[in-house]
Automatic annotation (TrEMBL):
It comes from Fusibacter bizertensis. Its EC number is 2.4.2.9. Allosterically activated by GTP. Keywords: Allosteric enzyme, Glycosyltransferase, GTP-binding, Magnesium, Nucleotide-binding, Transferase. NCBIfam families: PRK00129.1, upp. Catalyzes the conversion of uracil and 5-phospho-alpha-D-ribose 1-diphosphate (PRPP) to UMP and diphosphate. Residues 7-208 form the Phosphoribosyltransferase domain. This is Uracil phosphoribosyltransferase. Its cofactor is Mg(2+). PANTHER family: ADENINE PHOSPHORIBOSYLTRANSFERASE (PTHR32315), URACIL PHOSPHORIBOSYLTRANSFERASE, CHLOROPLASTIC (PTHR32315:SF4).
C-alpha cells in the first residue's frame, strides 16, 4: 500500500486558507498556488539521493554533496495542474515537463483524455504528477495509468487538496504511488466536489466558469 503524506508546514496551511477563500481572485489565486507548489516541491523532494563531489571553494578543496540518481519529470494534469508547474520548476529547473489533458465528464464524472505530450525518456525519470484537486481520484488514476502504459516506473502524486474517497481510489489502483497532499478534506458532495475544498480549481486559476 502506498503512503499518504499531509504537508503540515505552517506556510503551506496559511497560504492554502487564502487559496480556499472565495473572495480570493484569479491573480492572487494563481500566485498562491505557485507559492504553495514551491513549498510542496521542497517537501516532496526530501528523499532525493545525493552523492559526494569534489569542488574548490575560494578557500580550499572540499568534498560536498550534490544531487545524483534519476532525473525528474513534472507531469501536470491539464488544466488545473498547470498552475503548479512553475512552483515546481522554480526549485527543479532541470526537470522536464510532460502534459496530460483530462477533463471530468460532467455527466459520468469519468476522466476523458484530450491531450498527451511527454518527455521521450519517462521510463528513466522519477515522475511527479501534479493536480490541485484529488476528488474521486478518477483523473489522477487515469493519468498515472497513461504514464505506466508509456513506460513510467517511478511516480509520485502531489495535490493541494484531497479527500478520503480520492486517496482510496488512487491507492487501490496504484499501490506503488505515494501521495503528497497539503490538506486532506472531509468528503465529496453529491457533485463530486471536495467539501470544504476550494471550488473548481481550473475555473479559479483561469477565470472561467
Ligand atoms: C479537476 C481537477 C482534477 C479533477 C479532480 O479538473 O483539476 O483534474 O477535477 O477530480 P477527480 O479526482 O474526481 O477526477 P477538471 O476535470 O475540472 O478539469 P480542468 O482542470 O480542465 O478544470
Ligand atoms: N475538481 C475541482 O476543481 N474541485 C473539486 O472540488 C473537485 C474536482
Amino acid at each position: 500500500m502506498s503512503k499518504v503524506f499531509e504537508m503540515n508546514h505552517p506556510l503551506i496551511q496559511h497560504k492554502l486558507s487564502l487559496i480556499r477563500d472565495k473572495n480570493t481572485g484569479s491573480k492572487e489565486f494563481r500566485e498562491l498556488v505557485k507559492e504553495v507548489s514551491m513549498l510542496l516541491a521542497f517537501e516532496v523532494t526530501r528523499d532525493l539521493s545525493l552523492e559526494d563531489v569534489e569542488i574548490e571553494t575560494p578557500i580550499c578543496k572540499m568534498t560536498t554533496k550534490m544531487l545524483s540518481g534519476r532525473k525528474l519529470g513534472i507531469i501536470p494534469i491539464l488544466r488545473a495542474g498547470l498552475g503548479m508547474v512553475d512552483g515546481f520548476l522554480n526549485l527543479l529547473p532541470a526537470a522536464k515537463v510532460g502534459h496530460i489533458g483530462l477533463y471530468r465528464d460532467p455527466e459520468t464524472l469519468k476522466p476523458v483524455e484530450y491531450y498527451c505530450k511527454l518527455p521521450t525518456d519517462i521510463n528513466e525519470r522519477d515522475l511527479i504528477v501534479v493536480d490541485p484537486m484529488l476528488a474521486t481520484g478518477g483523473s489522477a488514476s487515469a493519468a498515472i495509468e497513461f504514464l505506466k502504459d508509456r513506460g513510467a516506473t517511478s511516480i509520485k502524486l502531489v495535490c493541494l487538496i484531497g479527500c478520503p474517497e480520492g486517496i482510496a481510489a488512487v491507492q487501490d489502483a496504484h499501490p506503488d504511488v505515494n501521495i503528497y497532499i497539503a490538506k486532506i478534506d472531509e468528503k465529496l458532495n453529491d457533485h463530486a466536489y471536495i467539501v470544504p475544498g476550494l471550488g473548481d480549481a481550473g475555473d479559479r486559476l483561469f477565470g472561467t466558469k
